[in-house]
Q: What sequence folds into this?
């Protein structure tokens, strides 16, 4: 029977929504491996991405315009790739 140690980090989001990242560490497992697991899980939550997007407000019309320009660019690249 293997023993597991766990460590958890609680994320607090605006609006009262709380999330928690829990990483189970096997006995004798390298701490670097546990940190790597934690970083991977933390990145999947999108907390840093959300924080950066909230830093500067962007109007919905600007978001739509940028998304449309990106779609046009990607479509142009695909057309060039086909030729």
A:
């Amino acid at each position: 029977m293997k023993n597991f140690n766990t460590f958890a980090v609680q994320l607090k989001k605006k609006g009262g929504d709380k999330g928690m990242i829990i990483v189970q560490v096997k006995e004798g497992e390298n701490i670097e491996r546990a940190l790597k697991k934690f970083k991977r899980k933390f990145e999947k939550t999108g907390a840093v991405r959300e924080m950066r997007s909230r830093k500067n407000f962007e109007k919905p019309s600007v978001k739509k315009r940028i998304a449309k320009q990106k779609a046009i660019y990607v479509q142009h690249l695909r057309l060039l790739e086909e030729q």
Q: What stands out?
A: DSSP finds three helices and two strands in the chain. Residues 60-82 form the longest helix (23 residues). Strands lie at 4-12, 18-26.
